[in-house]
Amino acid sequence: MILPLVDVFNSPYEAWSTRNLTPEEMLEHYNRTKQMTTHVNDKLLARVNNALDAANYMARTGADNGLGNFINDTLDNNANLKSWRGFMPSITPVSLGNYQKRYPDCDFDAVNRDINNSANILSEGQVLFHGGLWPSPSGSNFTTSRPLSSTFCPQVALRNAEHKGKAYDSNRIDLFVLRSTNPKTNVFLYRRAGTNLGNENEVLFAAGANLIRRSETMINDNYSAFKYPNLKKKIPVYVLEVDIS
What we know:
Toxin ADP-ribosyltransferase, Chain A, domain 1, three-stranded antiparallel β-sheet, 12 strands, 31% helix
């Protein structure tokens, strides 16, 4: 099954600074709206119109729960994403549950088999995110040898790149903007509701996906990377535009 396009930035996301209302402004606002508020938007900090904007914004800021909530709300109300779930097994296969909860202690062959058994591929132009490190010996393209995790949210991708000090050890973060091009690789969409990891908005590619790096841009050269218990250093964050088939 070809999964219909899901565009989480069909409506743009805006990040604003806020300021406190004066008592007079609070009263005026209440009289006008019959709702009480203490803050109001002040200055527009960023406008995110598409996935590349989102990746660049996240590489600069590092965190914005407003963006995460915006993406969650969009996905909750997206009819095409609801249809994706209808094409997935009603119960997540054990191997895929273990991948999400216990990675890397899982059976990758079983994970790959169960993704392929679902037999769903992305539409041309579908965009997702992945955080990690481009394999340096591979040049501008490589083919995955095991399943590849991706997400609808660049903030989740960034957190995954940092997990357990990976970014600290790698001395950089690569934030992939994955664009489905001539799609051939099967994918699996994890449940968003009723699971502790639903906020990751994860889409898992089967092994054998071909990735082609189209561009690489350093967005932030002063990003704080941490490693337990108290290591910290500054590293660069690169945004990569990548075709995935």
